[in-house]
Amino acid sequence: MNSLELKYGCNPNQKPARIFMEDGSDLPITVLNGRPGYINLLDALNGWQLVSELKKATGKVAATSFKHVSPAGAAIGLPLTEVEAKIYWVDDLGELTPMANAYARARGADRMSSFGDFISLSDTCDVCTAKLIAREVSDGVIAPSYEPEALEILKGKKKGNYCVLQIDPSYVPAKIERKNVFGITFEQGRNDLEIGPDMFGNIVTANKDLPKEAVDDLAIAMITLKYTQSNSVCYVKGGQAIGIGAGQQSRIHCTRLAGSKADNWYLRQAPQVLNLPFKEGIRRADRDNAIDLYIGEDYMDVLADGKWEAIFSEKPPVFTAEEKRAWLDGNTGVALGSDAFFPFGDNIERAFRSGVKYVAEPGGSVRDDNVIAAADSHDMVMCFTGMRLFHH
């Protein structure tokens, strides 16, 4: 199939819409179920590139959860801890496969943003992963293959309309890519930069102790940023993105946004949150919303009299600012990647408050010395990669 007609483009008024291969060859994707939309396909194709590169860089299966052409989460298939399984709402599923672990991590890091996501998997979608996907609110999934039972599970989602795409893993795109904006064709070489351990060899701080696990986390951060709308910053810990700040005009706002998401990820693991007394029958999405409010500044939206009764079996205590700060101080060993250089040391100071120990950024700012000094003041390890990763 060379061409695929779509319902409409980015918005319902943008018709006609389709995807097609200009060279007359077949599309590298096959629609196994449902009907993909324009934005679904942008998410699917960007997500597929991301997980393919994560698999190549780390040697482990990978998954990503995309929303509006940026990842909400990305992860490799490391086993979940008991606490992680609980905060990702998968503790009732027993032992997960590596592929299911990867998606649980990708989906679980920022469940608010992942609501209604498009999923990309680096390897075969197995039954365990399909069962996990089936219980979440999602628009579709792309993978190189599906176990027959897994495909049947996915076909039953969204009253039979769930979008399931299969991609040819041997497909290699052309070196030159084009897009049309306002009737004008843009052309550039495809960003085929390979991100691996060699990228992190130029350590510019006094502390040069960069363990293998941190190298993997930095690779995950930079590969994730390669497919995140710029400006962007990504926090990673334990093989998964825990905070992504996408599409901000200011670098410090990227760092703050991603840092606040990383903080929320860690706050969800606090005893005060793990032990919230939810009423029976509260849906996962409603629990996510309640937790987001509870750990934030608007906690009275769920704790005020007349409101908490609809969510909790008993009124939880306030999670005070002092208690939250004390808990966040226990988050350490976080890796941070930036798609362009940090122009000021304030980014490092903000990152430090979210447990960042390892940093990768291109370098090249006139204030590099200031940024290095800020990292040294916190005994961080910082690499200059020399490579900018803007994505639009």
Short description:
This protein folds into 3 domains: 3-172, AICAR transformylase, duplication domain (Cytidine Deaminase, domain 2), CATH 3.40.140; 177-267 and 328-384, Cytidine Deaminase, domain 2 (3-Layer(aba) Sandwich), CATH 3.40.140; 271-318, Helix Hairpins. It is 34% helix and 21% strand. The protein is built from 14 helices and 15 strands.
Low-confidence stretches: none
Helix-and-strand structural type: alpha/beta
Q: What is the number of helical segments per DSSP (H or I, 4+ residues)?
A: 14
| Helix proportion | 25-40%
Bulk shape: globular
Word description of this protein:
With 392 residues, the chain is of the alpha/beta class. It has 3 domains: 3-172, Cytidine Deaminase, domain 2, CATH 3.40.140; 177-267 and 328-384, Cytidine Deaminase, domain 2 (3-Layer(aba) Sandwich), CATH 3.40.140; 271-318, Helix Hairpins (Orthogonal Bundle), CATH 1.10.287. Helix content is 34%, strand content 21%. It has helices at 38-58, 82-87, 98-108, 111-114, 127-134, 148-155, 212-226, 251-267, 271-274, 284-294, 300-303, 321-328, 346-352, 368-377, and strands at residues 3-6, 17-20, 29-33, 62-67, 70-76, 117-121, 138-143, 163-167, 176-181, 184-189, 232-237, 240-246, 334-338, 356-361, 381-384. The strands form 4 sheets. The protein has a 6-stranded mixed sheet. The chain has a 5-stranded mixed sheet with strand order 12-11-13-14-15, with helices on both faces. A two-stranded antiparallel ribbon has the order 1-2. Strand 9 (176-181) and strand 10 (184-189) form a beta hairpin. Helix 1 (38-58) runs antiparallel to helix 7 and helix 3 packs parallel to helix 5 (127-134). The longest helix is centred in the N-terminal third of the chain and has 21 residues, at 38-58.
